[in-house]
Fold these 4 entries.
Entry 1:
Amino acid sequence: MSEPVFPALSDDCLARIAGDMDRQGFGVAVDCISVDHLASLRLFVERKVADAGGEYVALTGLDGVRDTLLGMLASSPEFMQAVRTIYRKGVGEPAPDKPFYQVLRCLSGRIGERHAYLFHYDSYVVTALVPIIMPSTGRAGDLIMFPNTRTIRKTYLRNLVDKVLLDNILTQMALKRIATSRTRRPTLVRMRPGNVYFFWGYRSVHANEPCDHDQIRATALFHYVNPHAGSRIRRVTTREAPAA
Ligand SMILES: O=C(O)CCC(=O)C(=O)O
Ligand SMILES: [Fe+2]
């Protein structure tokens, strides 16, 4: 049998990660993506960015990444088990049998810069972030977060109120000011390829810092469980929405 693409993490390790997500906003599974897998994924991303003329590319869903590590992770029993255990420990309910909503984001060039400081809540409870390429010079492209600023809302409408309060120019400007001030910095996560980072995406306001135009910053996101997936109001008011 070939090596699993993600290690089977112990219950203690997953409990530590879920505890870190509660306490400091994020938990880390260290050194769990192999150097070879990372290298071929890096090539895949570099090709996609080159095809896009050195600009921003995002691939949503499994189709475009099926034959890469990201496709393998989406169906890796060990990876699914890790995310489900984290969900169960954090939410205190059995983990539903739901697939990931996955996105590969490659920030580069001028358009990439426009995707920085876009503060949002994810629609999904757990976010697993796999850094693929992080800038080696210039601005670092850290993940910025204000961890665990809300609870899981009972209704989609209440969730929508949170999003409206967040997704307007005044709030966005205020958050950016806080994020870039020297005194009241939010949590900054400098991510290292090879590690996988977990946070409560639904509960935490977050965004990414910019990187220089000539650099690539590539991350893969695996989102798990939309608490409002069954909402009738959500179905009639949105088309299939992005994770945000
Ligand atoms: O790329 C990142 O660091 C975060 C992206 C994110 O939050 C999202 O796609 O929902
Ligand atoms: Fe997000």
Note: Strands lie at 27-29, 57-60, 101-107, 126-133, 143-146, 187-189, 196-199, 205-208, 217-224.
Entry 2:
Amino acid sequence: MKYNFDEMIDRTTTDSIKWSPKHLKENFGDEKSLPMWIADMDFRAPQPVIDTLIKRAEHGIFGYGHQSEAFLDSLIAWQERRNGWTIEREWILYTPGIIPALNFIVQSFCIPGDKIIVQSPVYYPFYNIIQNNGCHVVENKLKLKELKYEMDFDQLEDLVKDSRTKLLFLCSPHNPTGRVWTHKELIKLGRICIDNDVMIVSDEIHSDLIYEGHTHIPFAKISDEFANHSIICTSPTKTFNLAGLHVSNIIVKNRKNRNILKHRLETMDIDPGSFATVAQIAAYNEGEEWLSQLLNYLQGNIELIESFVNKRLSGVKFIKPEGTYLAWLDFTELFENYKVLEQFMQSKAKLALDEGYIFGSGGEGFERINFACSRELLKDALERIEKSINLIRGTTISPSS
Ligand SMILES: Cc1ncc(COP(=O)(O)O)c(C=O)c1O
């Protein structure tokens, strides 16, 4: 089946937070702003997922669910096939999302006052999760070298020596910079953390969205030792656009750590919803053809951004993603003040984007653009930026211009 990713589908009638006029007005200043912010896609899910959900809805009984063998096996087969990683059924715990999972992990393995390392600029909810659970964020800021981000291992060596540092949140692939970490980088990071008793929590939610020339390596696949000192968070939701169905899987090989986490989940009585289970099974078992067409389309969107920025947005730099559907654009040459940049995007370009500064240190003056949308919409967004820059070029770029 040939999927049509060019189709523009109205999402304003489906309680989508991304497209909610009220949300756009309140948060981006205009209900007509073009929404390219939160990370979900404007595409319909694979047809087998839609068919399965219709069939499940027609059954009409929506009682409590559980992690059935078919549900667990769909993930096991997916990891084996896509990543060559062999996992066992008993290692898998269900949570209704990765954000809840990260909260449960912090609550299970940290006490207030402990420290957790993040590699900024990074997925901004990491900060809230850590701080709202009474812990401290420690930033191991990434270094930008010739349009590519790298880890700062020297600084990491210092940070892990603090005995209050308990966890490192690894974002793999990395949101928002689009880096797909190499084997060498992961080994170096793992060695530093494990030697200093810091557990790695690897958020691999974007790991199926990888472009040619790059390979995702599940952190726990590297060795038994790495598996025993890590927790892997994964999900079909980014891959197949199922975020509203709330399904994610936490893979914990270490039995002691797994039991600690399992106990917390059981206490909260967390089990998968009727649509979550069947959607995952259909997506992992029958969604591969859709994913391959999607990646092709997204690759075309990356090429559009690259050529548009190079030819028509002088002064802007594009950090080309190796994975994810998020583009990270550097506006620091044009805007000295990141708050002015924010105002520019909202009031002049009429775009709803995730501002770089919310991703922590190193994000100031950048914009994250979600390009999982039709090419027409993406072109509209880029042209809005071009037009607005041309309007103010030659004038001082200040809050009032
Ligand atoms: C790195 C990362 N982790 C987690 C999430 C959210 O996960 P969930 O919707 O499963 O809570 C996102 C969503 O954008 C993300 O980018």
Note: The mean pLDDT is 96.
Entry 3:
Amino acid sequence: MNDARVALITGSSSGIGAAVARRMAEAGMCVVINSATSVEAGEKLAAELPRAIYVQGDVSDPADARRVVEATVEEFGRLDVLVNNAGLTRFIPLDDTEAVDESVWREIFDVNVIGTWHMMKAAQPHLKATGSGSIVNISSVSGSRAMGSSIPYAVSKAAVDHLTRLCGATFGPEVRVNAVAPGLVDTPWYDEAPEVWEGSRDWITANTPLCRVGSPEDVAEAVFGLAHAAYTTGSVLMVDGGRHLV
Ligand SMILES: NC(=O)c1ccc[n+]([C@@H]2O[C@H](COP(=O)([O-])OP(=O)(O)OC[C@H]3O[C@@H](n4cnc5c(N)ncnc54)[C@H](OP(=O)(O)O)[C@@H]3O)[C@@H](O)[C@H]2O)c1
């Protein structure tokens, strides 16, 4: 078995996932980069890191989820840390009921909730085999507060929080399951809604305890810490500059 620990980060061609991949690599871990569509960006990041591969796969497809996990174990011989970061949203004001149809619910839940489950299920036996496996799910402050880019998105992150608690209660003692819930983070996520980004950034800067938006590195540091916090399971850690307090 490979001696170095191995981290698989879904949705890591960009933003928070890419920062988590860099943080794990800095700590000497072997890293698996994944995305569904941005293959070139994923391959480029993998080439920059010392021991990394890129594996394309859509987490909402159970066969893809299994294939990504299998490719990880085939390449590096083990899996120690799974970070479920792949996610998507639609920017729909919370009071625009008409704009939210069934397809929006299904699209968001397929990736954010069911995709997270597919990955957890496929990875569980390999994480268990290490005796100290760890899963960190990327949730959102909108999973526990009445805010967010759309109602289906916020509800999907509430589901991720509870999935984290339920699996924290059942995957131990060999596997710990935790989540990080970011606030507003500066990533390409907001490229399609620059007005949402600008309004939210100004509000956060003026009204929250730490007076700034988050960086992908802020979130990556919390993910790294939680991934290695040996006596923590079933926890959801807010990484939002205190946004949830106001
Ligand atoms: N930015 C924020 O303010 C913020 C706040 C709270 C929570 N979050 C959460 O943080 C996570 C990452 O967001 P980000 O801001 O870093 O966004 P981002 O830069 O847009 O990155 C999203 C990543 O997910 C991948 N992805 C999307 N659908 C996928 C699928 N079905 N299978 C595999 N990969 C998929 C994307 O790649 P492709 O689309 O190319 O496949 C990309 O690599 C998400 O779960 C999001 O909900 C973000």
Note: The chain has seven helices and seven strands.
Entry 4:
Amino acid sequence: MTHASHSPRSDADWHENAYDLVRGLAAYSGSLLADGIARVIAKHPHANIANAFNYKQVGCKLWAREKLFDCAGPRYRKIAVLGGWYGVLPAMLLEDPRFDIATAVSYDIDPAVEEVSRTLGSGFGERFRAVTADMYALDYRAIGADLIVNTSCEHIADLAGWLRLLPAGTRVLLQSNDYFSEPTHISCVTSLDEFRAQAALAHIDFAGALPMKKYTRFMLIGTV
Ligand SMILES: C[S@@+](CC[C@H](N)C(=O)[O-])C[C@H]1O[C@@H](n2cnc3c(N)ncnc32)[C@H](O)[C@@H]1O
């Protein structure tokens, strides 16, 4: 006789288990983001949410949130996250009680992520928005964000060209990495110095490197 806890699991079983587990974690922790992830698992079974919310991705975003708090403070009228994927970082920022953020908007060029992102951020109501857009085609003056975030710099062809679209003096938080072997990483850098040179910010408040198992992530916080 097979004991229930050792029975073989199908993908469908595992999917249902993941939903139950994350829903339990959401109830236990009171996290709106965890609740959003449970909803994504249920409503968008093909979204790669396990990749977007894996240990390393969360680590890089916790690092971003801590350093942002330390060097730029807690208050933002509007945060725009470009290349925001499923909206994990805006949700993490909105969830942190130390911050006072009126709105966070996740922009991504991939129309397939918009609905997933909306589901993930649904617990934050009007404070969370998801928009399908090419970051090179946006009017940043009209957007009027007091913080522009791009943790997908390794995914875009011309970082300096994109930064030139932002109004002078805009505060930015940027991340890139040296993970060259991933085919969608078209703009990796080999070092923090190279990232600094690539971005050529007018002012830098923070520049740092976070070594991960397979790659190093680089971050700059400053103004254009
Ligand atoms: C794999 S994800 C994010 C990885 C990153 N480490 C992170 O989590 O912040 C990169 C995202 O950038 C988006 N992207 C790439 N080029 C873009 C563009 N021109 N405008 C807006 N989004 C873009 C992709 O659609 C994708 O969802």
Note: The chain has nine helices and seven strands.
